[in-house]
Structure to design on (404 residues):
């Protein structure tokens, strides 16, 4: 990984390539904060105990009605995951099944902290493993290193927080701000390094996003469908984007 | 950080005597610094905006939308620990952009009812800097001046 745009909390956005990088290689991390039933997403239909243990929850064997999409003789995918099956067949998908953190207590939030801080303890580190991973990218390979990390959401999730500068972006629901107002804000923040830096990042990202995704698709005014699609849901002060119907 | 150490030391030396600990807190020079240091949470920002403009939402539920937009849906901290209280939890680039957008919308809506420098002077008192006053004077319109006031470094902090 010599270049990475680390995108937390992404479920339903077109491919982005924001990071200042020579390479088009990106690492995209999606955290499903509602959790996922691995035995339904990737059913081990070939396991002789699977059907009896899961009973009405079991996904039927491939080839039957509502059956799994076979990956091999043991494992399949939920029938709605057809695109993931294609990726698997092209050698672009690896499934790491039945993996878990060492955390065995009952707090969902502490469990997420372990997942994000990359230590065995919920409060084991105030930084996230992805932020520390960015720090490990050699400086020579990381031109404009502060551009390497991007959180899709209003705020940066723990996994991407830490000493390395990262930034955040989310689609807007309000009309675009006039360049004149942004220029005056830049002047207003001239003696305030933190706000000046954030404004700089925010305008740079917005410009890129507009160029790459089409401003009209981001602005709810011109496209009510976008407003419906990107319904923000609150978690820890940052936004998750819910896919339609989720 | 130094004051945290001082307060922790006071707590330990007094074997947990709370009045001694409070004295250490009150005696720390940071407690007497008039300079706002902390980036407001969306909640602080929205409440203080309404107070600065001396208005109440026509419909109480109308107050809920900006909380959601700015990333702090009311009563829904998402964790039993409550909302985070470090500046870095709230001052992301995109969070600032959302505040800018909301402030522009608020400025547009309230331009007819406010005199920007008066509003800013009443809300910020001696904290209103000359630099910000100049920016408000020179703004292209009343609505822009109101937006710049809401977004000024002194109003964004507490």
């Amino acid at each position: 990984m010599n270049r990475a745009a680390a995108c937390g909390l992404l479920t339903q956005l077109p491919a982005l390539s924001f990071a200042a990088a020579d390479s088009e290689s990106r690492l995209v991390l999606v955290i499903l904060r509602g959790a996922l039933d691995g035995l339904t997403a990737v059913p081990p239909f070939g396991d002789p105990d699977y059907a009896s243990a899961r009973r009405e929850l079991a996904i039927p064997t491939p080839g039957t009605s509502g059956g799994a999409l076979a990956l091999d003789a043991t494992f399949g995918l939920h029938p709605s995951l057809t695109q993931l099956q294609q990726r698997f067949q092209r050698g672009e998908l690896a499934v790491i099944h039945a993996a878990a953190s060492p955390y065995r207590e009952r707090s969902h939030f502490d469990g997420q902290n372990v997942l994000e801080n990359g230590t065995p303890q919920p409060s084991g580190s105030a930084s996230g493993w992805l932020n520390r991973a960015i720090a490990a990218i050699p400086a020579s390979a990381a031109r404009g290193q502060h551009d390497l990390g991007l959180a899709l959401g209003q705020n940066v999730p723990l996994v991407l927080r830490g000493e390395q500068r990262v930034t955040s972006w989310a689609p807007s629901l309000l009309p675009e701000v006039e360049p004149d107002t942004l220029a005056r804000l830049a002047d207003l923040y001239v003696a305030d390094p933190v706000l000046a830096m954030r404004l700089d990042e925010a305008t740079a990202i917005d410009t890129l996003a507009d160029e790459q995704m089409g401003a009209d698709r981001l602005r709810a005014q011109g496209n009510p469908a976008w407003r419906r699609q990107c319904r923000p849901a609150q978690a820890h002060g940052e936004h998750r984007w819910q896919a339609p119907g989720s | 950080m130094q004051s945290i150490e001082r307060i922790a030391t006071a707590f330990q030396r007094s074997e947990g005597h709370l009045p001694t600990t409070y004295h250490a807190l009150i005696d720390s020079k940071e407690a007497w610094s008039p300079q706002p240091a902390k980036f407001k949470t969306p909640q602080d920002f929205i409440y203080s905006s309404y107070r600065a403009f001396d208005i109440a939402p026509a419909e109480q539920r109308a107050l809920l939308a900006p909380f959601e937009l700015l990333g702090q849906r009311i009563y829904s901290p998402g964790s039993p620990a409550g909302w985070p209280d470090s500046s870095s939890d709230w001052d992301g680039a995109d969070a600032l952009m959302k505040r800018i957008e909301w402030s522009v919308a608020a400025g547009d809506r309230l331009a007819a009812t406010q005199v920007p420098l008066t509003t800013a002077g009443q809300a910020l008192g001696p904290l209103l800097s000359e630099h910000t006053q100049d920016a408000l004077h020179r703004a292209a319109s009343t609505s822009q001046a109101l937006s710049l006031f809401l977004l000024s470094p002194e109003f964004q902090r507490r």
Notes: Chain B has a mean pLDDT of 90. The interface with chain A takes residues 39, 68-73, 76-81, 83-84, 88-98, 100-102, 104-105, 131-132, 135, 138-140, 144, 147-148, 151-153, 156 of chain B (CB under 8 Å). Chain B is about 55% helix and 0% strand. The longest helix of chain B spans residues 93-110.
